[in-house]
Amino acid sequence: MSFRAPIRDLALALKIAGHPALIGQSFSELDEDTVAAVLQAAGAFTQEELAPLNRVGDQVGAKYANGKVTAAPGFADAYRAFVAGGWNSLSADPEYGGQGLTKAMELAVFEMVHASNMAFGLCPMLTQGAIEALHLHGTERQKQLVLPRLVSGEWTGTMNLTEPQAGSDLAAITTRAEPDGQGGYRLTGQKIFITWGDHDAAENICHLVLARLPDAPPGVKGISLFLAPKYLIDDAGQPGAANDLRPASIEHKLGIHGSPTCVMLFEGARAELVGELNNGLAHMFVMMNAARLQVGVQGVAIAERAFQQALAFSQERRQGRAVWSAEYPAPLFGHPDVRRSLMLMKAKIEAARGICMTTGVLADRARLAPSEAERNAARARQELLTPIAKAWSTDIGVEVASLGVQIHGGMGFIEETGAAQYYRDARIAPIYEGANGIQAIDLIGRKVGMENGAVMDALCADVHATIEELRGDAELKSVAERLEAGVRALERATDWVIENKGPNALAAATPYLELAGDVIGGWMLARQAQATAGAADDWSRSKAALARLYAGQVLAGAPGLADGLMDGAADLEAVTFEALEA
Amino acid sequence: MSFRAPIRDLALALKIAGHPALIGQSFSELDEDTVAAVLQAAGAFTQEELAPLNRVGDQVGAKYANGKVTAAPGFADAYRAFVAGGWNSLSADPEYGGQGLTKAMELAVFEMVHASNMAFGLCPMLTQGAIEALHLHGTERQKQLVLPRLVSGEWTGTMNLTEPQAGSDLAAITTRAEPDGQGGYRLTGQKIFITWGDHDAAENICHLVLARLPDAPPGVKGISLFLAPKYLIDDAGQPGAANDLRPASIEHKLGIHGSPTCVMLFEGARAELVGELNNGLAHMFVMMNAARLQVGVQGVAIAERAFQQALAFSQERRQGRAVWSAEYPAPLFGHPDVRRSLMLMKAKIEAARGICMTTGVLADRARLAPSEAERNAARARQELLTPIAKAWSTDIGVEVASLGVQIHGGMGFIEETGAAQYYRDARIAPIYEGANGIQAIDLIGRKVGMENGAVMDALCADVHATIEELRGDAELKSVAERLEAGVRALERATDWVIENKGPNALAAATPYLELAGDVIGGWMLARQAQATAGAADDWSRSKAALARLYAGQVLAGAPGLADGLMDGAADLEAVTFEALEA
Question: What domain of life (chains A, B) (predicted)?
Fold first, then answer.
């Protein structure tokens, strides 16, 4: 079925996230009308131009032949339309041709891009990362000659991190960068899993590459960041001769077939340094924060798309007698078990959307807030929420896509129906941009302990404040009670993971991240219900129902989740590989 | 990677399930040596003959051309080897050529068949259903001429239930059966999703078909069961002329590509009645109990296969520094988060295996137990556990296959790795043989209320008895405590679903089934730990660790799950379709 842009839900999530307060602080002329107009226009573009290509992207996919990659049918034209519509440059600095909108607005637009066509969305998403890297760390030449082309979308960008032996562990990178004696470098090595590493949709591709100088220190402190364009760029900024780099193949993947995932060979490729020597990993991490949040949004997006298709099917498909329908055969939507499943999908989507948009607004506030104290507080909370936004939302993407298949019954397993594609596409998001286990370790290892736990404490205090507001509200009393039990469980678990460093905390990392997401997601739903309280329309009234359902089906499990994660790692440490073998 | 038959885990699950007590009661000469020998031989056959075809079955699959289906490469030969090895006839009545082993033994063997090659396993699994139907309800002619060929495996069987408008609701079946005036019938209609509906691996196919006589009452009370062979069977039992039925196409599916899923056209096909007129649904339900349990076992099987591959990868793949390894790079198995994930997968597999094998032994006891009271009690508990075995185990199949992909990181998303196939294959099991939502409704609607709740009460009483035994055991004290909280939560929830008929109970059906599976699964693990207590080997000692891990990560959530499901359905009833639309 076709995609419908979830404008009102996105607008609500932005509102809850505090986006309206940014208006006037942004360096663009952002006002409420602009926000609404941008969301509407993005909705129309994604519905009309990108969604219709999602299927052919899956079925035909990108192709590799004779050392070149051809984008899936229609994708190159769609990319040019995307660029022509200005969608590539929403949040970029106007100095380099951007429109200076907020990051949060851009995220909202990208949610629709990913929902309409996740494989397509990866191309501009990776370009965003390159824009960010050059904006923060690029040389003047790079800013003048390269950045505007990336902002406009004439050229695209990639991130070349992973090598066969270096996935989660970037310290193991071996790609070599040798000075060419003229201020530049020559890169030699192999990179894998390079998203949109080659294609025919833009006139040049700017590869950002992590590599190591011959005399660099070992480990992460010897990694530098380089820019290696597909076609060498002359001093007028024109692309010319081909560089000594090429795609060796593309992967045959479970999903996102429209996104070419390349093995890239650098064979003495000419490259320029970006940022400081041996500080490449830190530069890359700046980009990765944004990319991780974007991937979280992909989780929301694919869940939204899967939900929409399941919801539509629940109205079209008729089967049996249902307690909530007088018709026979009744639409699936009349069956309580189906409706519960749909409501749970929807509630989790709104919870994850709330977390992602909140993190996006925090990224803006970290730049735009009037005082340094506010900016620092926003940045700290952004850093705390980023691994949760990434991992929790992408897990939900998989879960909701799976429920979407289930609601279709036998039809869900037939590829023509489309539900199966979402189930396949969704599966990559918990893996790339830092596997969800890495996110969980980042959360307990680097984030929860920031400022001696004060960043998480402040977040929990805000949750308590909402709980106090909800207590007097008869409609949301049960939500307040379960949210309170949930946040207390999170506080207990937080104290425990801070006290228990080492294996105990590492073994608890994933359940802890799940608990944090469950509770913060419940807080988002509670505030969405608060914000729509009193309105009489069906949509507004459904928000309180979603918050209550989530409180019963998700938040009620929080105390048990906290108890379990505090068991410690002794059993895990003692078990042997052989004991688990068949 | 190759499949390893999980013999010791299967033997333990059979022991816990009470299989040893059946020895001597079975109508075959079953003894402990036979049990061990059969499991060993089945393990060898599945490892050597079936597992190597799993990949080509996925990549090439079954093919449809010119009105005929060709099995995937190697599958027809493998089927003949399967039949020649006697694997098709394990539990069938020796009077018709079977070996008279227990159903539970057969299930254990089929778990290995499905794990090695789920798409292949469906062919003999469907034949089992046809054997069961003819054994119970066939005419003398059918028993003499058809049954022995199905038992030997020379011919295969299918179940033709679903029609485009009749999936979960079999009352909507419209396939017509018209008397031919000579004691037979002519079938006309279209059936969909017919597993192994056509192929070239056996010399005849016996279709069991639900259809309706022209003057039959409407609804489920007008459905009869027919036998329509692909090739008509003469009075000497020889297949001759082709019948007027044919596959119209095969489906393009998410997974199990080696299993041809046919649209079947019956164009005046000659058929014989099986059982009583208008009682076909009841006859079919007898088969479906067995088939549902088999599908539950498929869930265990695909989870086992996915787990094995992830476990092997966790030893081969090295990445980063790990707290539980002195090596750099360390094997993934040295990382607490990876090990926790693997242990949780393993614990859930053993819990589900325990439930399925217990249900299998109950099916045997329902036939073989010495007294009628024992047989009735066994049958009632078998009926109670069947929807749980089916739904809970297949949900775990999907969950574990998804975790298996995750442990592989980026490699998991690449089809060549193999983990993705399990993720795709696993997804069908929660859907077919009664979607899991239907199982949940069966559980709360027909099963939990049996004998005024006494069947579930007796099960919970057995769980309490185990808890009392565990209390004195220092190793399993925490398991006892969490199992007790879990079973009390289940008891509360049981009372509630029995009291709350209608929408409230229907809305709670899926969470209730999940709760029941979580608690009964925890009971299985506790008893596996009891049974291996005291032994010093790694495998035995891991059982207590698995029970504790599961108690913390799963059972600890039971009280919250119970609380949430008792919220009632008012919010679901009130929400409108439009409120959920984008």
Answer: Bacteria
Three-state secondary-structure class, residue A292 = helix
* pLDDT tens, residue by residue, A291-304: 999 999 999 999 99
pLDDT (average), residues B190-207: 98
Give the model confidence (pLDDT) of B249-281 as tens digits: 999 999 999 999 999 999 999 999 999 999 999
Those residues whose C-beta lies under 8 Å from the C-beta of residue A182, and which sit 6 or more positions away, are none
Asked if B353 is an interface residue toward chain A (Cβ–Cβ < 8 A), one would say: no
Look at residues B124, B49, B117 and name the one whose alpha carbon lies nearest to residue B422.
B117
**Contacts A–B by Cβ distance under 8 A:** 298
Coil, strand, or helix at residue B317?
A: coil
What pLDDT score does B26 carry?
Answer: 67
Nearest Cα residue to B324 out of A441, A170, A577, A509 = A577
Say if residues A291 and A129 touch (Cβ distance below 8 Å). Answer: yes
Residue A120 in any domain: the answer is: no
Question: Which residue type does B28 have?
Answer: S
For residue B184, give the amino acid letter.
Answer: G
When CB atoms are compared, the residue of A162, A509, A556 closest to B410 is A162
Distance from C-alpha of A131 to C-alpha of A148, rounded to nearest angstrom? 9
Residue A567 within a domain: yes
A282: exposed, middle or buried (Cβ count in 10 Å: 0-12, 13-18, 19+): middle
Q: Which of A167, A192, A333 sits opposite B577 (nearest CB)?
A: A333
Paired sense of beta strands A245-250 and A261-274, if any = antiparallel
Distance CA A58, CA A73 (A): 10
CA atoms within 13 A on the CB side of B187: 33
Mutate which: B251, B341, B350, B427, vs A, most A CBs within 10 A: B427
Answer yes or no: do B575 and A424 touch at CB < 8 A.
no
Handedness of CA A287, A446, A191, A234 (dihedral sign): positive
**pLDDT grade for B96, boundaries at 50, 70 and 90:** very high
Q: Phi, psi (5° rounding) for residue A338?
A: -70, -45
Q: Is the pLDDT of residue A1 over 70?
A: no
Contact A115, A294 (CB under 8 A): no
CA distance B299 to B349: 9
Burial of B220 (0-12, 13-18, 19+ CB in 10 A): middle
Q: Containing domain of residue B564, as a range?
A: 436-572
Packing angle of the helix pair A419-426, A372-407 (nearest 10 deg): 140
Question: In total, how many domains does chain B have?
Answer: 1
What does the alpha-carbon distance between residue A92 and residue A128 come to, in Å, rounded to a whole number? Answer: 9
Tell me which H or E stretch contains B287: helix B280-316
Question: Under DSSP, is residue A93 helix (H, G, I), strand (E, B) or coil?
Answer: coil
Amino acid identity, position B123: C
A248 neighbors A293 (Cβ within 8 angstroms): no
Note the residue count of chain A: 582
- Quick check: A103 pLDDT over 90? yes
Tell me, yes or no, if B433 is annotated catalytic.
yes
Largest Cα–Cα distance in chain A? 81
- The per-residue pLDDT for range B479-524, each reduced to its tens digit, is 999 999 999 999 999 999 999 989 999 999 999 999 999 999 999 9
Tens of pLDDT, residues B419-478 = 999 999 999 999 999 999 999 999 999 999 999 999 999 999 999 999 999 998 999 999
Cβ of residue A390 closer than 8 Å to a chain B Cβ: no
Q: CB–CB of A527/A350 below 8 Å?
A: no
Residues of B with Cβ-Cβ distance to A580 under 8 angstroms: 311, 342-343, 346, 542
Alpha-carbon gap, residue A498 to A562, rounded angstroms: 14
Contact predicate B488/B519, CB 8 Å: no
Q: Given this model, what pLDDT does residue B27 score?
A: 60
* Angstroms from A506 CA to nearest CA on chain B: 6
Whether B540 maps to a domain, the answer reads yes
